[in-house]
From TrEMBL:
InterPro entries: Ribosomal_protein_uL10, Ribosomal_uL10, Ribosomal_uL10-like_insert, Ribosomal_uL10-like_insert_sf, Ribosomal_uL10-like_sf, uL10_eukaryotes. Ribosomal protein P0 is the functional equivalent of E.coli protein L10. Residues 311-321 have a biased composition (Gly residues). Belongs to the universal ribosomal protein uL10 family. It comes from Cyclotella cryptica. This is 60S acidic ribosomal protein P0. Residues 111-179 form the Large ribosomal subunit protein uL10-like insertion domain. Residues 302-321 are annotated as: Disordered. GO terms for cellular component: ribonucleoprotein complex; ribosome. The keyword Calcium does not apply. SUPFAM superfamilies: Ribosomal protein L10-like. Keywords: Ribonucleoprotein, Ribosomal protein. PANTHER family: 60S ACIDIC RIBOSOMAL PROTEIN P0, LARGE RIBOSOMAL SUBUNIT PROTEIN UL10.
Amino acid sequence: MPLSTARKTEYFTKMKELLTDYSKSFVVEIDNVGSKQIQQTRIALRGRAEMLMGKNTMMRKCIREYVEENPGTPIAQLENCCRGNVGFVFTNGDLGEIREVLESNVRPAPARVGAVAPIDVIVPKGPTGCDPGQTAFFQTLQIATKITKGQIEMTADTHLITAGEKVTASQAALLQKLNMEPFTYGLVLKSVYDSGSLFDAKVLDITDDVLAAKFIAALNTISKLSLALNIPTQASVTHSIANAFKAILSVTIELENYSFDKADIYKAYLADPSAFCGGGGGGGGGGDAPAAAAVEEVVEEEEAPPAVDMFGGGDGGGGDY
């Protein structure tokens, strides 16, 4: 039954107010979602977001009128989202929190004939509770069974329905006999509108950790290219310093009359490695302390150059500056 003129005017006013008052919104798909479930979602969102459902033609017309009244508004992008069985969830809060509420409000549902299966359905092996007279029904579905204690028992797990296929009458009847509700339905997030930008809801899966990992990987790539092309950049400067230190150290070790603080420990070690070895057991334990400290310092110094890759890379690439 079509809405009266007064109801349409009220609806248009409501939607325009929401478009004005809220800078963020979700476009949600509500296939197979009942009115009770929608009402429960409204209650869960109370105080944080508002949900608006309606006919696509009415929502598109309302958006067009809003754009005419507010030329240049990015709200015009939402008109193309009014396709299929969809609605809007408006909010000024955190999109991640609202998303959690929407995705958590799901309900189990039986498999109905003709419905498209959103997931694979696997019936586990075991007793079914069906009497032996229904064996032919299981044979029709090519399910191996045996009779145990006066009831039919499935001998193996059965892949009954594949995701994307339509549920047949026999499949729906079997799941009903087994009291199984294999599907869950809830609001499906399709798109997100945020302060003039419209993007896929999957973008919300990108966390700060994911962005940081991508950024570090990009810096590592830039560092490798810079070293290979002999073009210094901020990303490769740590590798350049490490390579330069190794080059200077290799020259200094060959010079008898020249050294510097960081090279002294290396030259001392190469001149007399035994001085850095711990003494044999027995007394005089105090005499080993300086040697142990020196060995530890040597190890730290030798490990220092490779550890400069702060961007997650391995070796420092090639090329010295």
